[in-house]
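hey
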C-alpha cells in the first residue's frame, strides 16, 4: 500500500499543478508575476527548511513540492513572460512559452551528459546506461544522503523538463507530428514502462523511497495521458477548470496527503 499511496500523491500533483496555473492566469498579468515570485520563494523555503528536518520522508515530500513550485514559478512562468515579451504566438494549439521550452533540448542534453559522468549519481536509468556503455569506466561513489529535499526537487524539475521537451519535439509538425509513428512509439513506451515501474513501486516498503520512485513512474506514465489528450481522446478537466472534477481531484489529493502524513508519524513513533 505504501507504493500506491506515493503514486496517488505524486500523480494528483500533475493535474492540480496545471489547474493552479490556469486559475492564476485568469486573474491577470500582475497577479501572475507575484504568484511566480511567491512560488519560487516557497520552493526555496521548503528546501531550506528541510535542512532542519531529520526525517528523510519529510525531506522527500518537501523536495517533491519544492520541485513543482520551482518548475511552475521559475521555468513555466519565466518562459511565459519571455514569450509575451518576444511576442511568440501559439501554433497548432501549443502556446508560445512551450515553443521556447522545446528549443532548450541542448541544455537538457548538457545536464544529462554531466549526470552521466557524475560518480555519486543514484539514478537507476543513468547507472543502467553506464553498464551498457562499457567504455564509461566510472566507479560509483555513493555516500549517505543527509538531505533528500534538494535532490528530489532537482529530480522533479529535470524529469518534467526532459519529457516536456521530448513531447514538444514529437508534436512539432515540422519534425514529427501529433500522429507520427514516433509519437505513437513514445505513447507505447510511456504507458508500457509506466505500468512496469508501477509494478516495481508497489513492492517498496519505505515511504520516502516510494515517493522518490513514484516521481519518474508518474511522469513517464503522465506522458501517455498528455498524448491521449493531444489526440483529442478526452478534454483535460484541469485546463477547462471543470469544477466537479477538480474538486474531486483536490479531495483525493487531500486524502492521500492525510494518509502519507499519518504513515510518517506512525513510522516516527515506531522508531
Amino acid at each position: 500500500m505504501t507504493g500506491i499511496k506515493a503514486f496517488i500523491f505524486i500523480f494528483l500533483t500533475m493535474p492540480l499543478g496545471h489547474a493552479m496555473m490556469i486559475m492564476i492566469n485568469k486573474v491577470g498579468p500582475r497577479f501572475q508575476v507575484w504568484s511566480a515570485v511567491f512560488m519560487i520563494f516557497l520552493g526555496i523555503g521548503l528546501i531550506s527548511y528541510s535542512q532542519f528536518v531529520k526525517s528523510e520522508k519529510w525531506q522527500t515530500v518537501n523536495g517533491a513540492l519544492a520541485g513543482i513550485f520551482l518548475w511552475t514559478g521559475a521555468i513555466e512562468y519565466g518562459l511565459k513572460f519571455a514569450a509575451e515579451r518576444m511576442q511568440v504566438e501559439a501554433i497548432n494549439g501549443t502556446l508560445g512559452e512551450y515553443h521556447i521550452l522545446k528549443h532548450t533540448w541542448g541544455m537538457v542534453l548538457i545536464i544529462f551528459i554531466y549526470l552521466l559522468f557524475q560518480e555519486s549519481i543514484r539514478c537507476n536509468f543513468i547507472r543502467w546506461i553506464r553498464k551498457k556503455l562499457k567504455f564509461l569506466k566510472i566507479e560509483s561513489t555513493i555516500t549517505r544522503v543527509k538531505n533528500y529535499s534538494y535532490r528530489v526537487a532537482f529530480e522533479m524539475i529535470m524529469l518534467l523538463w526532459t519529457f516536456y521537451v521530448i513531447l514538444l519535439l514529437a508534436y512539432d509538425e515540422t519534425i514529427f507530428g501529433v500522429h507520427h509513428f514516433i509519437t505513437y512509439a513514445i505513447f507505447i513506451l510511456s504507458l508500457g514502462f509506466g505500468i512496469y515501474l508501477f509494478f516495481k513501486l508497489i513492492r517498496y516498503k519505505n515511504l520516502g523511497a516510494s515517493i522518490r520512485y513514484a516521481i519518474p513512474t508518474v511522469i513517464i506514465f503522465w506522458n501517455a495521458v498528455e498524448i491521449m489528450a493531444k489526440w483529442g481522446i478526452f478534454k483535460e478537466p484541469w485546463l477547462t477548470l471543470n469544477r466537479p472534477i477538480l474538486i474531486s481531484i483536490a479531495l483525493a489529493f487531500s486524502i492521500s496527503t492525510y494518509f502519507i502524513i499519518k504513515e510518517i508519524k506512525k513510522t516516527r513513533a515506531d522508531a
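The chain has eleven helices and no strands. Residues 2-88+146-270 form one domain.
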